[in-house]
Design brief:
By secondary structure, the protein is of the alpha+beta class. Helix content is 37%, strand content 20%.
């Protein structure tokens, strides 16, 4: 059958969806400069599709410009068209960054960390998801049986990741029914967020070709186990030397890492509106779900908001330094990786800039917001978040999420879970 190669360019937006446009592959040289046409209110598309509210109206023009460092071309060798797409930046028509570009929000978070400390962040975003090609069978948590019965999905998914330039680390059956987890190698923060988007899309692309779905919704059923997106991160100095671990420091952390963690905890009630950005995100963040419920930093505890991770069989002190990392656990697959990681970076950078201290060990931990509405109020009233976003982006974000809340307000819990499973 006659075909002409097409390329898609997009970005992962406020709703956590990759949206953009396609173009003939022969036009790539010019598209690397001028991108594809976009408009301001495209950013206001809800997770469900319609634009419920927008401060931008119908006016204005933008462009999504492909980043050559974020190109994916994966041929599944099954006769279907290759997955060929770029992730890119939303720019004004003169080429400058648009103030509401999610990818540039992360870049600005990077710059804030470097300005505050001279350090940069290395990260990887670990995803949990449900693969519908497996049967829901009792006793399957972490089992060889569940691993076996996913058939060729895992092998094809891992091969697709590697072909897309992502280095796979692990693929495993998780605790929930039909739930799996994937981890990939850490990278500098912008590349790590790109990899997180690519990982989701390769899971979806693989499942699609097998006649199934990979679902990243925070909660599929009201009484079930949630899907998280856990952010593992460590600090490096300008020369690339690890700067997170100090064996004599509290929790084994350097002074900068302690202040970074303190900043994240200090701002967590506000930034969880970005990292856990859907109504059902807060159904996951409840007791007995292996998910955080309070603002805390704990050594090797998967119920903590931030976890000091273990070091495995390190051969020497240098390997301990390389392995040592913190894990942020108040995030899920409804979030844009750019925005989630950017918010954490801004918060951590502020902790370093202000030399913040961790809460006293014997202090009662503050509860996380119990709803997206409560988190949005914390976000709106935070002077720091106002500065990080700027007035236009903050207004757009708050309106986007409050419109989503209004739309879903009458849904029962079971309908919420069903509807979000359809879209994520």
């Amino acid at each position: 059958m006659l075909r002409e190669d097409l390329i898609f360019v997009g970005t992962c937006d406020i709703a956590g969806h990759v949206r953009g446009k396609g173009f003939p592959a022969v036009e790539l040289p010019s598209r690397l400069r001028k991108g594809i046409g976009w408009t301001h209110s495209n950013m206001m598309q809800s997770a469900f599709g319609p634009i419920f509210d927008t401060p931008f109206g119908t006016a204005g023009d933008l462009m999504i410009v492909p980043d050559p460092a974020a190109e994916v071309r994966v041929d599944f060798e099954d006769g279907s068209p290759a997955e060929h797409f770029f992730l890119g930046d939303i720019r004004n028509t003169n080429g400058s960054h648009w103030e509401c570009c999610p990818r540039d929000f992360l870049r600005r978070g990077n710059a804030a960390l470097e300005q505050a400390s001279g350090l940069r962040l290395i990260a990887t975003l670990e995803h949990e998801f449900v693969y519908t090609g497996n049967l829901d069978r009792p006793g399957d948590s972490y089992s060889l049986s569940a691993f076996r019965r996913q058939g060729g999905f895992g092998e094809t998914f891992v091969a697709a990741l590697r072909a897309a330039g992502v280095t796979p680390d692990s693929f495993l059956p998780e605790y929930g029914p039909r739930q799996f987890e994937v981890t990939v190698a850490p990278q500098a923060s912008l590349h790590a967020a790109d990899q997180a988007v690519i990982t989701r899309e390769m899971a979806r692309a693989t499942a699609h070709r097998l006649g199934h779905r990979a679902i990243f919704s925070p909660m599929l059923v009201a009484d079930g186990v949630g899907n998280g997106m856990h952010i593992h991160m460590s600090l490096r100095d300008a020369a690339g030397v690890p700067a997170t671990h100090d064996p004599s420091g509290p929790f084994g952390l350097t002074r900068a890492a302690l202040q970074f963690a303190a900043g994240v905890l200090h701002h967590l009630p506000a930034i969880c509106a970005v990292t856990a950005p859907s109504p059902i995100s807060y159904l996951r963040l409840t007791p007995n779900r292996w998910a955080p419920t309070v603002v805390d930093l704990v050594q090797q505890d998967r119920g903590a908001a931030m976890r000091v991770c273990p070091v495995f069989a390190a051969g020497d002190a240098d390997e301990v330094q390389r392995q040592f990392n913190l894990e942020f656990r108040v995030a899920d697959g409804a979030a844009s990786p750019y925005m989630a990681l950017g918010a954490v970076l801004f918060a951590g950078a502020d902790g370093i800039r202000r030399c913040l201290a961790l809460p006293p060990v014997d202090a009662k931990a503050t509860a996380l917001p119990r709803s997206l509405g409560a988190a949005l109020k914390e976000m709106e009233h935070s002077e720091a978040v106002q500065a990080w976003f700027g007035p236009v982006f903050l207004d757009a974000y708050l309106r986007h999420k409050r419109a989503e809340l209004d739309y879903t307000n009458e849904f029962s819990v079971s309908e919420l879970c069903h509807r979000y499973a359809e879209i994520y």
